[in-house]
Please model this.
Amino acid sequence: MRVPQPLIILSPPRGFSSVVSTVIGQHPELYGFPELNIFLGDQMSDIKNYFRGTYPGGLLRTIAELHAGEQTLATVLDAYAWLEQRLDWPTKKMYDYILYCIAPKIGVEKSPRTCTKPKHLQRTYAYYPKAYYLHLTRNPVAARKSIREFAEAMRRKREKYSDAEAYADKIAMFIHDPVLMMVWYRMHDNILKLTAELPVGQTMRIRGEDVLSEPEFYLTQLAAWMGIRTDAEAIEEMKHPENSPYACPGPAPLAPGGNDGKFMRDPYLRVGKIKEASVHKEIEKAGLLKTWGEDFSKRFLRMSGTIGYY
Model:
């Protein structure tokens, strides 16, 4: 059986990746995964070490769904045991296996952690040099607010546990703008450097705001780019992310996540024009030009313009 190349969505955290990837993955010729995080190491043992002795929730949920057709605590435990027996597998072999399980559908991958380091993206491309690569963006003003809210919520949650004080302090530091927006900048820079080297037609950049504001137009455009169905019925299916088996929290305590928690609690596509803030005006109003320094401010604004936000 022919196994098609995957669609790999590249995006920093809090960049509409959960909702947009799930929307795209509902196309009848596609299969949307939760965050698999497989490209973070060479061997499956590397992935377990990266996640401090466990496996990504999205990976556990996917194996449970593919093997058992459902995600319960029992099937997730079975998935965990199955992965334990394959710690020596190269991550390429694991991903190939998952793609084989969903073939002839095309896998839709989105794991923001992949974009944190060039080596993760280089590994991704080395594994799948003929994949489709979609650069998903979000207005940095809105992304900044979302990241701060998420980090603050995590800090408050971690402060409840005395043994997690150091982690809470780490999250609190991340809220500070120089750190937070430098991470945002570097991740987009990593993505741009990768996609700049790809052949014409293999990569596409799309603004999350556009997909959510005018889904019929932009989803049809994306489907045409991939050479898959563009009829009204196929596009209509994409507008129902709530039908994905991963559009809800997974079984705790092993695999509750895999997608953004806010999205999983309310996984519906609400179409409407998204109001966008002016990046220049908001940064100036917040006094961030002085906080960040002239050099980084210029680079940040240049990057923002490059991906379509002014």
Q: What stands out?
A: The domain at 7-306 is CATH 3.40.50.300 (Rossmann fold). The longest helix spans residues 140-158. The longest strand covers residues 132-137. The chain has one domain: 7-306.
